[in-house]
Each structure stands twice: as structure tokens, then as C-alpha cells.
Amino acid sequence: MIAFVRGPVAALTLNSAVVDVGGVGYQVMCTPGTIAGLRVGTEAQLATSMVVREDSMTIYGFADTDERDMFELVQTASGVGPKVAQAMLAVLSPERLRTAISQADHAALTSVPGIGRKGAERIVVELKDRIGTPMAVAPSSDGRWRGQVRDALQGLGWSTRDAESAVDAVAPDAGSDPDVPTLLRAALQTLSKA
């Protein structure tokens, strides 16, 4: 297993980064939030999880080991593969995900594309005893929340116009200290109602 990759970022797309590790470019699938923290040409270290299938080997990258550990844990639930697990972390931070599972917050879980009511119930039943105790979620002080939310929505398949409309709709809720995962969830709810 590849536990992490470190090196200069050679390229970025909406859902992946290429990290030059000793002259070999590793394509690492990432959430929009992780990609937002990367810049081409700068050194980066990403915690990784390698998923091996019959026809592919895919490396998923994360800003920290907590995200990676949550990615691997949620995949142990029935019906949750790497793409759904990555979508869960794109919408909900690891702490928010722990809270949603431990408190059986089906509404938060169904805000993730690819998870319906029955899937949310199954995730809660299968993971509630293994998820750990959630801590208080610290709000993000990042002043770039609009770009992060927009990029996350586009990474999940929404058009630029729809993403911008959703960001504008949740902007009044941002306040002086915006919480990006909460704003992203609100934006997704706005889009699902449209």
C-alpha cells in the first residue's frame, strides 16, 4: 500500500492531481477541497489510499490522515465504494461525518450524491459502533469559501452556472467565519430543490 506521496504538483484537474515523486508522476484522485489547497509547482504531501480492482489501480489522496482513515472506514459499509466515499468527504468533513453517523442524521448523509434514505440508514447501522466519538467541529476561517464551494460542486458534476447560483444562494448564511462543509451541504440542498 502507498501511505502517502510527496513531491511537486505537476498538474491539477477538477478531481485529480499529478504529484512528481522521484521522477514518476502519480495521478491521485482528490476531493475538490483537497485540490483547492494544491498549486502546480509547489511541494505537497498527500495521505493516500490505494484501491486495487481487477482492471485498475487507483490512488486516492487526502489533505490529512483523518480524511484517509474515514475514507477507508466508510467503504466497509455495504454499498459504499470509493467514489461514494470520496463524495461523502467532499460534502462532509470527517468530524461532521462522524457526527452524522453517530447521531443518525440521515438528512446530512442523504445530502451526499449517491446516498439515498435506505443507504443512509444502512451506513448508520453498520458504522455507528465503529465510528468513534465526534469532537466539536471547528469552523473554517478560510476567506476563499466561495471558490471552494463552487469547485466542489463542479467536481461533483454540477455546471458552472448552477454552482455559481448555489453559492450566491448560500452566501447570506456565510457570516464572518464561514464553515465550508456546512455551506457546501446547504448549496447541495439548494440544487436538489431546483
Automatic annotation (TrEMBL):
It is found in: Cytoplasm. GO terms for cellular component: cytoplasm; Holliday junction helicase complex; Holliday junction resolvase complex. Pfam families: HHH_5, RuvA_C, RuvA_N. Residues 148-194 are annotated as: Domain III. The keyword Cytoplasm applies. Homotetramer. Forms an RuvA(8)-RuvB(12)-Holliday junction (HJ) complex. HJ DNA is sandwiched between 2 RuvA tetramers; dsDNA enters through RuvA and exits via RuvB. An RuvB hexamer assembles on each DNA strand where it exits the tetramer. Each RuvB hexamer is contacted by two RuvA subunits (via domain III) on 2 adjacent RuvB subunits; this complex drives branch migration. In the full resolvosome a probable DNA-RuvA(4)-RuvB(12)-RuvC(2) complex forms which resolves the HJ. The RuvA-RuvB-RuvC complex processes Holliday junction (HJ) DNA during genetic recombination and DNA repair, while the RuvA-RuvB complex plays an important role in the rescue of blocked DNA replication forks via replication fork reversal (RFR). RuvA specifically binds to HJ cruciform DNA, conferring on it an open structure. The RuvB hexamer acts as an ATP-dependent pump, pulling dsDNA into and through the RuvAB complex. HJ branch migration allows RuvC to scan DNA until it finds its consensus sequence, where it cleaves and resolves the cruciform DNA. Belongs to the RuvA family. This is Holliday junction branch migration complex subunit RuvA. It comes from Aeromicrobium terrae. The gene is ruvA.
